[in-house]
Write a structure and sequence with these properties.
This is TatD DNase family protein. This protein is an alpha/beta fold and about 325 residues long. It contains eleven helices and eight strands. The protein has a single domain, classed as Metal-dependent hydrolases (TIM Barrel), CATH 3.20.20.140. An eight-stranded parallel β-sheet has the order 1-2-3-4-5-6-7-8. α7 links the parallel β5 and β6.
């Protein structure tokens, strides 16, 4: 795909939804009013499934430090190369492809080995820890992650951590054991760690503080804390990676956290295909959407856009190394 085909204000060609196959007119036999209502519903559904238009390119390239290229949104099947070409065209030079289980972690390693614009992170997602433990497979899965983490193109262990939103109290012990094991892998392998922290701020911090050793670089992926957690991160030198959620009007806690976060500890991500930034919330996300979030951050902080881009890019290199 040629970069010249990515036009700001238009959905990139690789991300355009295919037309649905022809079918019988489902409005046949309906009243005009019902047919109009049905057509409006279908238009809204299709609109929600459409990828947003490409943004204006960033003045200084900034990588996406957390994405899921293997997660397909709706009917779109975009190749890794096309996704990266599209991102490159708007100033996103590379991505950290993140695994959530053994299969997706293998995909991350393979993608990073095949394309120099991709780095990999590997892990068992916290919500998978309890089911795996119950089935007797958690130790084997973590051992596989340990082996994958030895690859040179793997620069982080993650996403690992604690999720109390989707996993009940009965699964918290398995999550914690998995989190601690992943931290140990990151230390031994000399990798950063990407933390998934949902409704578990206190316990995540507790695990980090209790660990005998921590990786040199600790990243709170999709940072969801408030100013209090931001201060804790500042004090400990932990990185805060902001996703599209920071652009939401009701994200007042995130806005406060961003305002006081040490600029040298701030990163940016998409977590694509999820968490699409305003004004496209609810539609599928992709690495090419990073500029929307970065521009919001610059406006919120009252900083020059190019200056902020340079800081974000430098922070990303410091955590993950060169692509």
């Amino acid at each position: 795909m040629s970069d010249s085909r990515v036009t700001p204000g238009s959905t990139p060609p690789a991300f355009v939804s295919p037309e649905p196959p022809g079918s019988d007119d489902v409005s046949a036999g309906l009243s005009a009013q019902e047919a109009e209502r049905l057509a409006a519903q279908e238009a809204r559904r299709r609109r929600r499934s459409e990828y947003p238009p490409a943004p204006e390119p960033l003045p200084v390239p900034v990588p996406d430090n957390h994405t899921h290229l293997d997660a397909r949104a709706y009917r779109i099947d975009v190749s890794v190369a096309d996704a990266l070409d599209t991102a490159n065209a708007v100033g996103v030079p590379g991505v950290v492809q993140v695994g959530c289980d053994v299969e997706s972690s293998r995909f991350a390693v393979e993608a990073a080995a095949a394309d120099p614009r991709v780095l990999a992170a590997v892990a068992i997602h916290p919500n998978d820890a309890a089911p795996l433990a119950e089935a007797g497979g958690l130790d084997a899965a973590i051992a596989e992650i340990d082996a994958l983490a030895a690859h040179e193109r793997v620069r982080a262990v993650g996403e690992t951590g604690l999720d109390y939103f989707r996993t009940g109290e009965e699964g918290h012990g398995a999550q914690r054991a998995s989190f601690e094991a992943h931290l140990d892998i990151a230390v031994r392998r000399g990798k950063a760690v990407q933390i998934h922290d949902r409704d578990a701020h206190h316990d995540v911090v507790e695990v980090l503080r209790a660990a005998p050793r921590l990786p040199e670089h600790v990243v709170f992926h999709c940072f969801s804390g408030d100013a209090e957690l931001a201060r804790i991160c500042n004090d400990n030198g932990w990185y805060m990676s902001f996703a599209g959620t920071v652009t939401f009007k009701n994200s007042t806690g995130l806005h406060a956290a961003l305002a006081i976060a040490d600029p040298e500890l701030v990163l940016v991500e998409t977590d694509a295909p999820y968490l699409t930034p305003h004004p496209y919330r609810g539609r599928p996300n992709a690495a090419y959407m990073i500029p929307y979030t970065v521009r919001f951050m610059a406006e919120h902080l009252g900083r020059d856009l190019a200056e902020l881009c340079s800081v974000l890019a430098g922070n990303t290199r410091r955590v993950y190394g060169e692509f």
